[in-house]
């Protein structure tokens, strides 16, 4: 099977939305995405200035990564919004390949840092830790419900 990593474009939006629902409506997230809400979220990310994203294909779309660059006072950083791999294909290196492609691209763009939000103490945190990410000592996540 031929592996391909291609730029995430609107051509892949519907397939990525279906995958998003499949992944995030199951353990450990158990969220309640519909195709329409997932598609709207990914459409927003795709149309954010500074967007960078890739899809992983092997006969079919198996995963994607997406986020956007933000200019800071001295350098650019990247907010990794989503990384998503079909549940039955996880732990086979697809997420790592997507992350490596992303990092290669961001390095060429002179981005100096990546940040993201994820559930703590779970599979996702373990994945990011394995790839050199660490909990920030300087930033906290704050929320207000209303």
TrEMBL record:
Entry keyword annotation includes Transmembrane helix: no
PROSITE patterns for this protein: GNAT
Organism in which the protein naturally occurs: Nostoc sphaeroides CCNUC1
Protein origin, superkingdom: Bacteria
Pfam family, one: Acetyltransf_1
Stored InterPro entries: Acyl_CoA_acyltransferase, GNAT_dom
Molecular-function annotations in GO: acyltransferase activity, transferring groups other than amino-acyl groups
N-acetyltransferase domain boundaries: 3-146
Name of the molecule in the record: N-acetyltransferase
Protein keywords: Acyltransferase, Transferase
CDD domains hit by this protein: NAT_SF
